[in-house]
User: Fold this.
Amino acid sequence: MHRSAPRLTRILACAAVPVMLVVAGCSSDSGDKKEADSSASASPQATKSEPVVEPAKFAALPDPCKAIEAKTVKSLVPSAKSKNGTRSKSTDTSVRGGCSWNGLADKGVKGSQYRWLDVGFTRFASDQTLGSGAARAGEEFDKQVKKTEATDGAKNVATGSVSGIGDQATKISYDQSKTDEDFRFTTIVARTGNVVVVVNYNGAGYAGSKTPSAETILKGATMAAKDAVAAVADANAGSAESPKATDGATGEATDKATDKASDDSSKKPSKKPSSSNGSKSSD
Assistant:
């Protein structure tokens, strides 16, 4: 079949150039491909943003030895060896703090009454990886409740919720016998924002004196817990809430110290507690 001269000339020209040039210059869709490539390079891949965790409510803790009102201490531990309390050791008082009081009221022939009271605070910061301070405090709250319920040698364990103390609170009451004496205990674990508060109160009767009633010990623990939770709010009054949203390294250090403090609370004196306490190691 006869082809026109212009068409034949064009075919021969395309056949004479290198293959790469033929694809670029002679392909009918080369222009469309360039436009597609240009459009793809102009649209960078969308970046995903992680949700920011809720800022922690409290940035500071109260002085633990001043968190329980003086009148409360006097009522619960009337013969305290130190009215100002014994401060627990802490490497960072903005994260952890504690204080304890104990004493033996000697009533002569009527026997003696021993009392122990302690309070502990743990603050959790918000962390982008670990979660909000409140959520982390909630986990510690559950952990402390379970640990108290599993106290070695505890009898007649009774657990229940408590209203009017922080965002959530649980009471754990139990009996424990050591050194031929019967002790009554109540622990109240409370959470207020991103802070966990643990109050332990216990007592025993010596030399024929009666063991304090469960109601007496529960009432005392509740009174002290209310003071402690109120002290957290007072310590942060007027200050900006949670200046830092991430403080994971500091917050992580709290778990080990919490475990140690809880273990100490289960100890009892080996002798009449004139120089030791009913549930803790000696001051």
About this structure: The CA atoms of residues 24 and 30 lie 6 Å apart. The longest strand covers residues 112-123.
